[in-house]
């Protein structure tokens, strides 16, 4: 073989091996790097790219985002981090390449207008009606010949099903079911049932049975159309006229299925007493809706990150009268922070906490922040995080970063919080993907 050709082939092989090794190492180092990044206009962000080799980064919209001050293309490595300067709202793509040629990663960058909201902390009463009638159990109907049956169970209707229509009639209240069942029983005709189960629409047919004890036609179902409770307001966004609260989904207490909202309200509420948290036994706020109290807002959505709806003005008892900036997840640091919450009456107070851990999340997930209560006043009054405290805003360095969501059952001084950006997405203030994982902790 020609010596020059041999040297060439050897050089190409060496370059290929180096590229292969460099690419695999780079991919490993870039795996935690986000596929999508939210930035606030006018707030620079520095990203430390842990690459053992040098890579190039280019942006397709330099009018939206600048790299390292002014460049459209720049180099990054362990020693040279990447600084992003968001100039105006819009969407840009960062393209990262190894040796200027081998594609490594594409990052979507969403630049959002500078965003500020008013932190809450107020205890709120929650009243919600489901978008249909929720099945929470089966019961036996005793007929004239003492036979027992559950027509609903025999028709295949399951606990957790949401019945939306009977004979084509849209259901609004539980009393509607009794009326339709009575009419169908007297005419000896089956009822056509439309229900939703796990996001699927299902048709069924049910024949009411006459209950000799109640002297009425029954479906053999325990049903519910509403729920009520207390929680904490997280934020009010005056520019958009919307709010976010709770930080976690409202579920039916019997079926543990998320409630599909038909309508609802949040109301003024006052804390009357606290059952303190202890290891293995989460405590709770005891509160009541204020008689003749003001309706604070509507409930339009119930998601993994809380309840959301319209609100026309900042509620009373706010610690903050003006809006403050929000911080996205990659700005949050382990260390001191504070929460806003109520432990007596309607007075919102600041309490010290420590951010123990911050998760890296490329998509919405509920377990974003691990926090620990460090304020002796709050520990004395509550023992730590209690039920009804969920939604309490978390503030660090003058920015709203998230909301308390769950308590660690065996360590009530500690719990989880969610990132504020996921709540802002579900409130419709910023755009994004709202898919999320399940939460298996006790709601705060």
From TrEMBL:
Return the InterPro entries for the record.
PDZ, PDZ_6, Peptidase_S55, SpoIVB
Q: Which GO terms describe its molecular function?
A: hydrolase activity
Q: What is its EC number?
A: 3.4.21.116
Q: Tell me the ranges covered by the Peptidase S55 domain, including all copies.
A: 200-439
- Among its keywords, does the record have Hydrolase? yes
The cross-references to SMART domains, in alphabetical order and at most eight, read: PDZ (SM00228)
Query: Looking at the Swiss-Prot or TrEMBL record, what is one Pfam family this protein matches?
Result: PDZ_6
Q: Which UniProt keywords apply?
A: Hydrolase
What protein does this entry describe? SpoIVB peptidase
The scientific name of the source species is Paenibacillus brevis
* Upper classification of the organism: Bacteria, Bacillati, Bacillota, Bacilli, Bacillales
């Amino acid at each position: 073989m020609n010596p020059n050709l041999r040297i060439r082939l050897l050089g190409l092989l060496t370059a290929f091996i180096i590229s292969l090794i460099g690419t695999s190492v780079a991919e490993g180092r870039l795996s935690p790097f986000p596929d999508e990044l939210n930035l606030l206009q006018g707030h620079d962000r520095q990203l430390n790219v842990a690459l053992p080799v040098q890579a190039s980064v280019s942006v397709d919209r330099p009018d939206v985002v600048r790299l390292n001050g002014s460049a459209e293309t720049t180099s990054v490595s362990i020693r040279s981090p990447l600084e992003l300067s968001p100039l105006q709202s819009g969407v840009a793509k960062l393209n990262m390449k190894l040796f200027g040629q081998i594609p490594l990663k594409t990052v979507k960058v969403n630049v959002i207008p500078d965003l500020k909201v008013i932190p809450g902390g107020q205890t709120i009463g929650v009243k919600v009606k489901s978008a249909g009638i929720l099945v929470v159990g089966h019961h036996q109907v005793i007929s004239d010949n003492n036979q027992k049956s559950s027509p609903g169970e025999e028709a295949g209707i399951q606990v957790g099903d949401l019945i939306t229509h009977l004979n084509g009639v849209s259901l609004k209240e539980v009393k509607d079911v009794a009326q339709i069942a009575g009419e169908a029983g007297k005419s000896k005709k089956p009822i056509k049932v439309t229900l939703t189960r796990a996001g699927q629409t299902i048709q069924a047919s049910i024949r009411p049975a006459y209950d000799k004890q109640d002297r009425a036609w029954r479906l053999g179902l325990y049903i519910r159309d509403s729920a009520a409770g207390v929680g904490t307001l997280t934020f009010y966004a005056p520019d958009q006229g919307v709010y976010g609260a709770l930080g976690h989904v409202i579920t039916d207490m019997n079926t543990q299925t998320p409630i599909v909202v038909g309508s609802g309200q949040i109301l003024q509420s006052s804390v009357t007493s606290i059952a303190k948290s202890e290891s293995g036994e989460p405590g709770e706020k005891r509160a009541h809706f204020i008689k003749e109290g003001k309706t604070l807002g509507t409930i339009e959505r119930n998601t993994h990150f809380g309840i959301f709806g319209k609100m026309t003005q900042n509620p009373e008892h706010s610690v903050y009268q003006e809006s403050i900036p929000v911080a996205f997840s990659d700005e949050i640091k382990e260390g001191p922070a504070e929460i806003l919450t109520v432990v007596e009456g309607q007075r919102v107070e600041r309490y010290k906490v420590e951010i123990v851990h911050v998760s890296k999340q490329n998509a919405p997930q509920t377990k974003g922040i691990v926090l620990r209560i460090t304020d002796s006043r709050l520990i004395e009054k509550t023992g730590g995080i209690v039920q009804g405290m969920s939604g309490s805003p978390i503030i660090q360095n003058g920015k709203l970063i998230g909301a308390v969501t769950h308590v660690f059952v065996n360590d009530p001084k500690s719990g989880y919080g969610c990132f504020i950006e996921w709540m802002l997405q579900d409130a419709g203030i910023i755009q994004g993907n709202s898919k999320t994982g399940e939460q298996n902790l006790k709601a705060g």
